[in-house]
Write a structure and sequence with these properties.
The complex is a heterodimer. By secondary structure, chain A is an alpha+beta fold. Chain A has one helix spanning about 25-45, and strands at about 1-10, 15, 20-25, 55-60, 65-70. In chain B, helix 3 (about 110-120) packs across helix 4. The chains are: A alpha+beta, B alpha+beta.
Chain lengths: ~80, ~240
C-alpha cells in the first residue's frame, strides 16, 4: 500500500488533499479519483452549481505529480458526445 | 458506593429528571472516560451498559458486510447510548462509538432497567429522548436524499457544534467522509465551499465554527426541529 494525494485542480488554484489515501497502486488511486469525480459532478448537477474542480492531480507522499485525471474521464462517453 | 449528586452531573437527561428518578438511577452511575474510537455497542452483540455522556460525541453507524457505512445519528451530553434496552430488546444492528472524546457515566443494562421500574418519571423522560433521537434520524434521512453534500455537512457541523464546548471541532476529512457516506474529495470540496462563504475555518483535522446563524440558514430547514423537540419535551439543549 502507498499513500496517494488527490489534489483538485480548480480555476484559480488547487484544493489540497490534506490527508491522502492508502491505495495498492496508482491504478487503484486513479479508480478512486474517478469515483470521487463522479460524486462531485453528481453533486454539481443536483445543485445546479458548476463544479469547482476540473481534474485531480494525483501525487505521491513526496509531492511528485504522478497522474492527471480530468473530470471528463469520469463521465460516460455518451455524456460528452457532441451530437 | 458513592455516586455523583444531581447538581454535579452535566448530562442533559440526568440533570432534568425529578428527585425520585435521580434517586433510582444515581446509585447505578459509574464515572467513565470516553476515549475517541471506543466502541460502546457492537452491532449484534448483547447490550452490557448504557452511557450517559457529560461531554464528547457518540455516533451510531450502520454498515453492510462489505463495509459501506453511514452515520444514522449522533448524541452527546443531551443523551445516552444503549437506549434500545428501554424498548425491551437486548441487542441492535447498529454500532455505537465515541467520535469526539469525552466523559460520562455508565450504568449496567440491568441497573437501568431496574431504575426505570422503580421511577416511572425516569422511564418517561428517557423514552421522550428516544422520540427525539428518532426525529433526528428522520431529518438525517430527509437531508441525505434532499441536500447537497455541502448542505449535509453544514447540518452535521451544527449538530457537532451543539455538543462540544467552544467553537472548535476536531475531525479529519476521512472521518467526515465516513459520517456523511461520501468520498473524501467531496468533503474537502464542501469544506472549501463553506469556508469560502466565511461560515467556518478548516484546518487539518480541525474545524472552527465562525458564523453559526449563517450555517443554520445554509442548512435550509434541515437543522433545528429535533433540537426544538428536545427543548419542548425534555429541557435545555446545548
Amino acid at each position: 500500500m502507498s499513500r496517494f494525494y488527490l489534489h483538485q485542480q480548480i480555476a484559480n488554484g488547487v484544493i489540497e488533499d490534506p490527508d491522502g489515501t492508502e491505495a495498492v497502486d496508482l491504478a487503484a488511486a486513479k479508480h478512486e479519483a474517478i469515483l470521487a469525480a463522479r460524486q462531485l459532478l453528481a453533486n454539481a448537477i443536483l445543485t445546479g452549481v458548476a463544479p469547482l474542480g476540473t481534474a485531480f492531480q494525483i501525487t505521491n507522499e513526496a509531492g511528485q505529480m504522478l497522474l492527471k485525471v480530468p473530470f471528463r474521464d469520469a463521465l460516460p462517453a455518451r455524456f460528452i458526445s457532441t451530437d | 458506593m458513592p455516586h455523583p449528586t444531581q447538581s454535579f452531573v452535566r448530562n442533559g437527561l440526568l440533570s432534568v429528571i425529578d428527585a425520585a428518578a435521580y434517586a433510582a438511577i444515581g446509585p447505578h452511575l459509574e464515572p467513565v472516560d470516553l476515549p475517541k474510537g471506543t466502541v460502546l455497542i457492537e452491532a449484534g452483540e448483547p447490550f452490557t451498559h448504557a452511557h450517559f455522556f457529560n461531554s464528547g460525541i457518540g455516533s451510531i453507524v450502520v454498515s453492510t458486510a462489505d463495509s459501506r457505512r453511514v452515520e444514522a445519528g449522533i448524541f452527546g451530553r443531551e443523551g445516552l447510548s444503549g437506549f434500545g434496552c428501554l424498548l425491551g430488546v437486548d441487542q441492535c444492528p447498529q454500532t455505537t462509538m465515541v467520535q469526539v472524546e469525552g466523559e460520562g457515566y455508565r450504568v449496567s443494562i440491568d441497573g437501568l432497567r431496574a431504575a426505570c421500574q422503580e421511577a416511572a418519571s425516569l422511564r418517561e423522560t428517557l423514552l421522550r429522548y428516544v422520540h427525539v433521537f428518532i426525529s433526528q434520524t428522520s431529518y438525517t434521512s430527509l437531508s441525505n436524499v434532499n441536500q447537497s453534500v455541502e448542505g449535509r455537512l453544514a447540518r452535521w457541523l451544527l449538530m457537532c457544534h451543539d455538543r462540544v464546548t467552544g467553537d472548535d471541532i476536531a475531525l479529519t476529512h476521512e472521518f467526515l467522509s465516513i459520517m456523511l457516506a461520501v468520498q473524501r474529495p467531496s468533503v474537502t470540496t464542501a469544506l472549501h465551499m463553506i469556508e469560502g462563504y466565511g461560515f467556518i475555518k478548516a484546518r487539518r483535522g480541525h474545524i472552527t465554527i465562525l458564523d453559526r446563524d449563517a450555517l443554520i440558514d445554509f442548512a435550509d430547514g434541515m437543522y433545528g426541529t429535533p433540537e426544538a423537540e428536545y427543548r419542548r419535551l425534555i429541557g435545555p439543549f446545548s
